[in-house]
Design brief:
mainly beta, 1 helix, 362 residues, four-stranded antiparallel sheet
Length: 362
Amino acid sequence: MQVTVVQFVLLIAAAALAMSCGSGAQQTQTATTTTRPAAPSGGGQGGSRLAVAATYQNPVVRDNCPDPGVLEAEGAFYAVCTTNTNDTPNKFPIRRSTDLVHWEPVGFVFPAGRTPSWARADYWAPELHRVGDRYVAYFTARHQDGKLSIGVATAERPGGPYTDAGQPLIHDVRAGMIDSNHFQDQDGKRYLYWKIDGNDFRPPEPTNVFVQELSPDGMTLTGTRRAILTNDRPWEGEVIEGGWLLRRGEYYYLIYSGNTFNSDRYATGVARSRSPVGPFEKFPDPILTSSTRWAGPGHGSVIHVGDADWYVYHAWERGRIDPAWDKPMYPRMMLIDRVQWGKDGWPHINDGHPSESSVSTR
């Protein structure tokens, strides 16, 4: 085939344009695959632009702050705690910090007048999570029929206030369902973990921990419910609760608490699995137990800051364990300690006890 000068020039121009488009597409693909996605919830993933204070000494919050759930969002950490006094109209206090050590109050999940219509008391174990373009709170409250249930609420900002969905996410007329934990995996799937109050039956039944997949908006349970953990270790007594799932490498770690909450037997354990839905194997002994100053350490959350994981949890001061249920005489204070990952692949915290003296984080 003969090619004129004009045709030759047109062919050269077309080839150059194709090369340019191909190069641009390649650059676009490279940028897409190397951009770090938003870190899944649960700690142990991604990085933080914030840093823990250079030094700290427990407690970091001296006020009553049981079951702290911590979220990093909008350039700060947000911690939300149980409200175990039924005579206050404000439920679930929210605190804000930029260094995980110094905290200031910023509001409530449910200020007076905004509490869920289906709930009547016992607002426990809240968590805050970023789901899409809004924030979702998961929490426990006592249903009008007397059963503890798990609720869900949403807000535009992490500091709230939050609007309840109008009905419980999990409600069972046979037993209480409490201590929910939301986890988003790297593939985008979301899961909810919680426990059944089997210890309330007479005679007591196991307090199984369940997992079930959540819808993409985090507002509905989907798929199959599975029991993944039960109280079968001597140190756990009649209760396991307060789970928090995180992923590290090929394993999913469920950090949980066990035994009687208002005793020095309450402690923190861990189980792991290669799947978010189990089966899980337990580390044989608790990884955090009472010390000379602190009693009943547990029911916390794990937050990834820089290259480290931190456990944010509550504990009583030794000798000041509260016998009351809903009118606390003594506070469960908020503590933090770094999670160390051993060569055995399991997490460890200090020497197995909360830190008591000043700690350097550098």
